[in-house]
Design a protein that fits this description.
Layout (H helix, E strand, L loop, with lengths): L1 H7 L8 E3 L5 E8 L9 H16 L8 E4 L3 E4 L2 E10 L3 E2 L2 E2 L2 E8 L28 H22 L2 H9 L20 E5 L5 E5 L2 E5 L1 H15 L1
Antiparallel strand pairs: 1-2, 2-8, 3-4, 4-5, 5-8, 6-7, 9-10, 10-11
């Protein structure tokens, strides 16, 4: 994560909100000093996804759907347009990480060098799904406003409102397709996310749980292999 590197160099601090310029992607990162335990920090990942979903939903045609695939994938019309990410300090104070970075990357327009956009039906851009008039600047401004609103709601009401809103856009028509070993495989039916941000998975052997931070590490490794 580019923001994490800047943070480690002392160039960023709590409350800093940074973004990358460019028309093809929305990329931003928010640096925070959390006041909750390492486990509860996962809630902020879903808060960020909900804030983006509300922001985009207000700007795009109503027939276009936005959904979330646990733990961090953002979908439009059931194809991936981007993902959220969460990085935590390895050092903590009384079980509370010294810092965290919430970041988001969303594909708005096809890259100029991209060959045959739309060829992969599982990956898309907002432009390909009918959002041709939407700019990264407008989407960034709307997402930032919604982040402020959702942080206020989360601080006042806890995770329930975020959980309910995320679950309302939950995408569960496909099985979870990654394992903690880092190898893509079918894992069973995704039942939903519990109140501690764990995924509930049901297969032939019963119901099991996967923690958000473990799943994020797996997805991060898979993305690094493909890049």
């Amino acid at each position: 994560m580019w923001a994490k590197a800047q943070l480690n160099k002392g160039k960023l601090g709590a409350g800093d909100f940074v973004w990358a310029e460019g028309a093809n992607y929305l990329r931003f990162a928010l640096v925070l000093e959390p006041e909750v335990s390492r486990q509860r920090c996962s809630e902020i990942l879903y808060l960020g996804m909900v804030a983006f979903g509300d922001a985009a939903g207000a700007l795009i045609p109503p027939e276009i759907s936005i959904n979330y695939q646990w733990p961090s994938i953002i979908l439009m019309n059931n194809a991936e347009i981007g993902y959220a990410e969460l990085a935590l300090s390895q050092d903590d104070t009384n079980g509370i990480p010294n810092w965290l970075v919430l970041s988001l990357e969303v594909h708005i327009r096809p890259d100029e060098l991209e060959q045959n956009p739309g060829l992969n039906v599982n990956i898309t851009s907002m432009w390909e799904e009918g959002c041709g008039g939407l700019t990264s600047e407008r989407l960034l401004e709307s997402t930032a406003r919604n982040l402020v609103n959702w942080f206020h709601t989360w601080s006042e009401e806890g995770f329930k409102s975020v959980h309910d809103q995320w679950s309302a856009r939950q995408y569960d028509k496909l099985p979870l397709t990654f394992a903690l070993s880092g190898e893509a495989e079918e894992m069973g039916k995704f039942l939903g996310m519990d109140e501690t941000c764990n995924a509930l998975i049901r297969d032939a052997s019963g119901t099991s749980e996967i923690a958000t931070l473990d799943a994020l590490k797996t997805l991060r490794n898979l993305r690094n292999r493909r890049s």
